[in-house]
């Protein structure tokens, strides 16, 4: 692996979404390649799960920050409102 399996958990919050996703993709490639020992594969899988959760949390944070521009029907100034899903 590229050393990411030894990266301490405390580094996780310092990772951007893009960095975490890149590391996760590298782990997936390595596991799919099948050229690692069982112990390293388990460690990599565990790190991958943590990275997945981190990426999901960062995406949720971003989603909550997104605002829609609301244009008034009768003219006036546009305003913003929190992003809403249909769920």
Structure characterization notes:
By secondary structure, the protein is mainly alpha-helical. The protein has a domain of 58 residues. Helices cover 52% and strands 9% of the residues. The chain has 2 helices and 2 strands. Strands 1-2 form a two-stranded antiparallel ribbon. A hairpin with an 8-residue loop joins strand 1 and strand 2. Helix 1 runs antiparallel to helix 2.
Write the layout of secondary structure elements.
Elements: H1 17-33, H2 38-65, E1 67-70, E2 79-82
Antiparallel strand pairs: 1-2
Helix pairs in contact: 1-2
Q: Taking Cα atoms only, what radius of gyration do you get, to the nearest Å?
A: 19 Å
Strand content: 5-15%
Structural class: mainly alpha
In whole angstroms, the N-to-C terminal distance is 39 Å
- Form type: rod-shaped
Largest sheet: 2 strands, antiparallel
The helix content, as a percent range, equals 40-55%
Order of helices and strands: HHEE
Side-by-side strand order of the widest sheet: 1-2
């Amino acid at each position: 692996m590229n050393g990411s399996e030894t990266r301490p958990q405390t580094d996780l919050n310092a990772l951007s979404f893009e960095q975490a996703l890149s590391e996760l993709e590298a782990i997936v490639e390595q596991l799919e390649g099948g050229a690692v020992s069982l112990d390293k594969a388990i460690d990599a899988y565990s790190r991958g799960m943590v990275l997945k959760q981190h990426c999901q949390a960062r995406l949720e944070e971003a989603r909550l920050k997104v605002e829609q521009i609301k244009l008034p029907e009768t003219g006036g100034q546009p305003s913003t409102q929190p992003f809403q899903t249909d769920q």
